[in-house]
Write a structure and sequence with these properties.
heterotetramer; A mainly alpha; B mainly alpha; C mainly alpha; D mainly alpha; C: two-stranded antiparallel ribbon; two-stranded antiparallel ribbon; 67% helix; D: mainly alpha
Chain lengths: 114, 167, 484, 733
Amino acid sequence: MQDVPLSWYLGLGLFMFSTGVVGVVIRRNPVVVFMCIELMLNAVNLTFLAFARYMPAVLDAGESARSAWMAGQMMVIFVMAVAAAEVAVGLGIIMAIYRLRNEIDLDEMSALRG
Amino acid sequence: MTSNQLVFLMLAGLAALAAVGVVAFPSPVRSAISLVINFFILAFVYFTLGAQMLGITQILVYTGAIMVLFLFVIMLLNLGAPDAKAKVSGWQTAVAVALGFGLFGIVAGQVILPLSSFTQPRSAIDYGSPQAIGQTLFTGYVWPFEITSVLLLVGIVGSILLAKRRI
Amino acid sequence: MTPRELYTSPRGGEKSWVGNAFLFRNVEGQVRRRGGSQRVQSRGRMEFLQSLHPAVLALIRVLLLVLPLLMLVPGLIWWERRLLSWMQDRIGPNRTGTITLKSGKRIGTFGLLQPIADGVKLFFKEDITPKSVDRVIYFIAPGLALFPAFALGGTLPWGPPTGLWGLLTPVANIDIGILYVLAISSLGVYGVVLAGYASNNKYSLIGGLRSSAQLISYELAMGVSLACVVMATGSLRMTDMVFEQQKALWGVVPWIQNWFIFTPFGFVSFVIFLICMIAETNRAPFDLPEAENEIIAGYHTEYSSMKFAVFFMGEYASMFVFGGIISTVFLGGYNLMPINWAILAQDLPAAAGLFNFLDQANYTLAPLGFLLKCVMGISFYIWLRATLPRLRYDQLMALGWKVLLPCAVANFIVVAIWIMATSLYGVLGGLIAGGIAFLICGVLYLNVMAATRGQRSSLEKRTLVLTDGIGTDQRNQVELVETR
Amino acid sequence: MNGNPFDLIWYVLGLPLAGFLVQALFGGAVIRALGPAAGRRVMGALAVLPIVAAFGLGVSLVYNLIQLDPSSRNQVVTLFDWIRIPSLWVPFELRVDPLSMTMVLIITGVGALIHLYATGYMAEESDYARFFTYLNLFIAFMLILVLGNNLLMLFIGWEGVGLCSYLLIGFWYKDLANSRAGNKAFIVNRIGDVGLVIAMFLLVSLIASQGPSFVFSEGRFLSYDVLLSQSAINLYVANPLLTTVIALCLFVGACGKSAQFPLYLWLPDAMAGPTPVSALIHAATMVTAGVFLLNRLHPIFEASPVAGAVVAMIGAFTAAFAALIAFGQTDIKKVLAYSTVSQLGFMFIACGAGAYWAGMFHVTTHAFFKALLFLGAGAVIHAMAHEQDMRRYGKLLKYLPITGATMLVGWVAIAGVPPFAGFWSKEAILGAGLGNHYAEAANQNWGMVAGWIGLGVAALTAMYMTRLTWLTFFGPKEQWREIPLVDNGHGHDHAHAAHHDHAGHGGHAHEDHGPDEHNFFYTDAEVAARAEVPAHHHELDQTHTPHEVPISMWFPLVVLAILSLGGGYVLYNGHLFEHWLYPDGLALLSKEAVEGHPAGIPLLQLSIGAALLGIIAGLAVYWRGLPAKEGWDLSRWSPFRRAAANQFGYDRAMVEAGVDGGGFLANFAWKGIDVLFIDGIVNGLAAAAARLGGLLRTFQTGYVRSYALVTLVGVVALLGYLLIVAQRAGAMP
């Protein structure tokens, strides 16, 4: 995998991220919105990994370099863990809402209207 | 255009398509499926980045657990059918899409282009091996690791509390 | 020091300290000698293979894994039906393929052709696709169900890592083998779930739901029980695991191999893994997704000829592959017998010749041994199916969450302590510490269970939670089912 | 702790603390476990032993200290850093030097004796353990006060002893009067504490103005070895005005603790506590903290003669005022209390006149004889079934031979008859007052004035002490045998409450000039509630015969008697005490300025004459018992006595000023500041916020997606600005 430029990975990540953003805005189904958020998280993960692999920040090898690669992967791991927790709680909330009012539609949930 | 680039382009194209599918499909189940595909392909993208451990973890966590949960909830709540009344007002969609493209354009132009000169990976070959990750995770990052475990515990308790009808 | 030196992969000369806990003096020597002898023995074929392009070699490996799998499936079906019928005091399919000569003489084939006939029937049946299904998903679901079964075998070494077999197996000796297994097996659920959803049928849906919940809950225990083995091995590679199991038993008996099933912790993980694996493959007594007397045929109610056949094939293939996994992880992999012939030959020079011959045989027949173990696994499946009644859903969940998972975690802790103590105080101290930890965990677990026995959730509540969101009729249906 | 012998000082401090903990944690349990008698004996021993041990340690430390040469006789032992911030460093350190060790010896020595006495005195007390908990805690705090090497630790001790005194005054809290007395003491002390705190702030500001690197203090502004360092003294001399203010503020603090004129009110009421408490806290140790403070920071006072003059005059006036009031008192403990106040006045005269050593000397001797007198009075009260009214005594000498004898010693000692202890110290004080040319302001040697007043007061002291002694031990007849018709309102030491475990106990405390007849701290309802508490049955009658007190009570008396008999001369002889305290003179004042030997005034004769005169006058007046003008019928009292009995209306005036003025201030703060101003601001803000929110809530559509959309717009806009505009403008790298 020598010669794939860093920018391609970043581009993929960025595209996924913007797609997720658009999805969050235009979808009315909370589950789908959740999925879009997951999409954004994964885009971020991809970016982390790409930077960890190519590491434009750390130009000198050695200690700092190794810690930099590792830092990127650590971030990804923690993002995954947090995403798991977030999904568990979020889906629980969705189920609770559904049980409360037999339908799920973000535009119907405007009880907080000022 | 080397084989690696070819492979990457194929993966990336599929992933991008799947990502668009997540947003575009009217039926949540199809969105979920395309998200699964996206994550699965993303795992291979990780492999191309040399992060085997994380790629597998990606499949294990996202594809294997999180997305199954999503499907489970979708089916449990009968959200499977493409919701008819989920018509979003056109202008909102238009604005959102435009803004999305704006975001893409700005960041791509201002951040990614300057970085386009980096083509050589600098990390070690096995920087993504389980040994490397394990050593780093349990030496330098043990404290965040523990905190994350606590977070997950809280997540478990919270989801049970939310999902159970009577505790 | 460079990262390369820092994180030496266990393939390299020095192993991590966990492995050292089990090192025995002449294990290394044994391995070296075996490799050498092989290289001498089968030079010609190896040169030919090595001369091939790596991609071609990889292709050969894949074919060597997949084709037998595909060809074995009908045999497995036949074997299941025969064994089942014997266990149930029947005869089973024994006619098909019997050739009757002019002279009225019959050449029996024990109905070996029965599966062929079934296959033909399935292929030529009318392929019904119900009207209101979600077509795309309906079509891809069987493929998704079949895919993991074949992908799983990718990391299984069905032959020794040296010499000829070393070139032919495993398909990919990635250093995250076990994780790969877990990941792919976790993908198996999609076929079921999507099939259940796509065929627009409430029973199928319930089947899919059950399957997904079941798989998610049993994967945890499975992963933890495998983690114990990983700790003991110090590596995620399948080959390293087999290598680890070839060492001296408990680090003291050099002649007997240290198969993990022989070690106390290994046995516990083995049992847990066995149960989880049955649940993962949706087999009796955990076949709730296709419980014919509750929800017609579960997720493949709406599937007919070809697609149904694919489901069928996927099920058997995954059974076979899981048999391979469990034999690799716990049963010493491709070794026919848990005996280090080479060391025997070294220590008893009198019978050295015999033992060396047996060593050779063990090497040569390694794939056969592997196959044997897989078939044993399948037979165990069938035996269970013939023996045990199907669990109730809540029993399933209780078993997964309240028994298997705690046991697996406790076992995990015990193994950690045991390994630590072994590396610190030697073998005996390790065993003692492990035993103490085991006792403590057991007592704790029993106490917790006794404490929570009072507050089992009520049947009705389970029903509500299970079928939440589905129309009332299913709810009644499921209640009827649950209260059966 | 690198083997420094003075590290033992921590044990001196730690032993009473340990005792306190033992008493507090296990006292009740032990007494309950072993039964009242044995349990109390055990706990009493456990309470006394630490103090005795501490005394022993103190003696050994003093021995170590004497070994050193005078210049190096200030050892500082640091335990840990208490406060350490860049600009301030307050280590938790103790200072071992002659002054602190003198106080330590007084505190632990007299304290041990009084503890021993208390074991006997409180023998029937039900809250035995609680009492000794407080007592040990007091000792510990007092030690912190005197030993601490910085003003902050002194302040800890200062407040701690205040707390203990409050707790002990209100020991029998079931009686409202006691609680009131405690409250009064606590509140009046606050005033003094404010002065002390202000003084500390001023000191810090003064020293810190020189920058944190001042002398060797890396921010240790409050440590004595900085405050007393030569450069600091130069600083005091450099700006006299601030120094004077500091000195006066310090003196305010001293007034509060040592019951000087404006703030002496609380001390007489503090007699509501058990007698050992009065002896230990309100005569021997705590009230001398003010004198200790002046001695400790003497350079500050030396630097401002004005402050010296003020101190001297206040002391003199207090001495005279209290002495006059003492004539109006019929409660034996009250007489002693006022005599304490006036003796403290003497000490301040000395300090004001620049003879700090004389002040400390009087502290010492006064600790001897005043503790002796109080304990004796306690013994008498104990013997007389807790009757405190001298008009009920008489001819007690034959019933209480040991107590009587020892109290006679104390009498002559305080009266100032040579060679008793009081004579030497008082003579030194008067000599300092008359002889020193230090406390001069407005071309007038106020020290001289104070000295003359002191001389007069010495005579008065001798006279009222004679009154007390005569009425108690001699007199024509045994007064308690005829019960008067008019029930007096005089208070009792409420130890008898212990006899029936506080059960419905009441008794009348200081009816006429009690802590406050204006319900200073209590509502009328409570007063009424208190009034109907039934009088206790345990009362004097004709059949009563006093009995000598147990050994645990008279042994301390004997020891103290010996001390007040010989102690003064031993210490005074050859300026022993002076050289011990101030081996090489004072910081600023030359020896000539404070040589303490008035030229041309026959001081010796004068003071002896004053003492004898007072005694003779007292005998002359009270030879045949109480004159009719002091009988039971208050209405027939001479106006002077009635005025004296009411402290010349000073107490009432103060209390009224406090109540009414305070009430007025509080009302103003409530209506004017709080309601109008602060509440106005708060409510106004709240209302404004509500109105603003009302405006903003229209933006809250409640649609998640619109929020998301707006967020997206913001993100894109911000990114666009940052990445394009700002980058073009070069604002970002």
